[in-house]
Amino acid sequence: MTDVHGQLPATAAPATDRGTLIAQDNQVTLRKLLVVTLVMFGFGFALVPFYEKICEVTGINRIVKRDDHRPANTQVDTSRLVTVEFDANLRSDLPWTFRPLETSVKVHPGEIATVVYEVSNTAGHAVTGQAIPSYGPMLAGQFFRKLECFCFDKQQLDAGETRRMPIAFVVDPGLPGDVGTITLSFTFFEVAGRGAASASLTAPAAGAAPTAIP
C-alpha cells in the first residue's frame, strides 16, 4: 500500500539488525576504552624518566644527599658572621618529638660547625622517618654545605628510643653580603621500611654541647 504521495511507508528494522548494530557499537566503545587505558598506562610509565630528568636538571634530588664538595674558597672569612637558625617540624602522623639542642649559632663563612638535633619516638613500636631540609631565604640553600647530616638516611627509632643526631655544615664564603641570617628547617616524614642510621651519625655523649669547629 502506498501513501497519498505514492511512496511506500517506512517499515521498522528487523530485531536482528538492531541487535547487530548495538553489538557493533559496543565493540567500538570497548576498543576506544582499551586505547585510552593503554595510552594512560604508557603515559604513567613515561612520567617516571621524565620526572627523574626534571629532578636531575633542577637539583631536587640533591636536597637530601651529601654535599660532595667543600666551598671553592676554603679560607675562613673572619671579618663576617652569619647567624644560622635551626627549626624542627614533624608531619602530624609521625609520633615523634624533634628539636634542635641549640636554636641558633653564629659562624664565619668558610668555618665548619656542628650542631645536634634530638629526636624521640613516643610510639609503642618502631617507626622510620626521613628528614627533608629547607632554607630561608631560599637563595641560602645554594651556599649551605651539609658535610654530615641525619637527613642523608632514613632514621628508624625503636619504641621509646631517643637519639641525638649531629649535622656538620659550612656556609660558603660566596654567600651574598646582604644575607646575614640563614634558617635551616627540617621536617620529618614517616616512611615505610627499615632505615638504620649511618654509623657516622652516632650521637655524642649525653650532655655534650654543640660546638663550632674552627
Written account of the structure:
There is one protein chain. The protein is elongated, with a radius of gyration of 31 Å. It has a five-stranded mixed beta sheet with strand order 3-1-9-5-7, with no helix packed on it. Strands 2-4-8-6 form a four-stranded antiparallel beta sheet, with no helix packed on it. The protein has one helix at 15-58, and strands spanning 82-90, 96-100, 104-107, 112-121, 127-136, 144-148, 155-157, 162-171, 181-190. Residues 43-48, 50-63 and 195-214 have low confidence and may be disordered. It is of the alpha+beta class and 214 residues long. The protein has two domains: 13-58; 82-201, Ctag/Cox11 (Pfam 04442) (Sandwich), CATH 2.60.370. The termini are far apart.
In short:
By secondary structure, the protein is of the alpha+beta class. Helix content is 21%, strand content 31%. 16% of the residues are buried.
CATH topology of the largest domain: Ctag/Cox11 (Pfam 04442)
Helix share bin: 10-25%
Q: Give the strand line-up of the largest sheet.
A: 3-1-9-5-7
Main beta sheet strand tally, sense and closure:
5 strands, mixed
CATH class of the largest domain: Mainly Beta
Q: Tell me, briefly, the overall form.
A: elongated
User: Whole-number radius of gyration?
Assistant: 31 Å
What CATH architecture of the largest domain would you give? Sandwich
Tags for this model:
214 residues; alpha+beta; Ctag/Cox11 (Pfam 04442); 2 domains; 5-stranded mixed beta sheet; 4-stranded antiparallel beta sheet; 31% strand; elongated; disordered C terminus
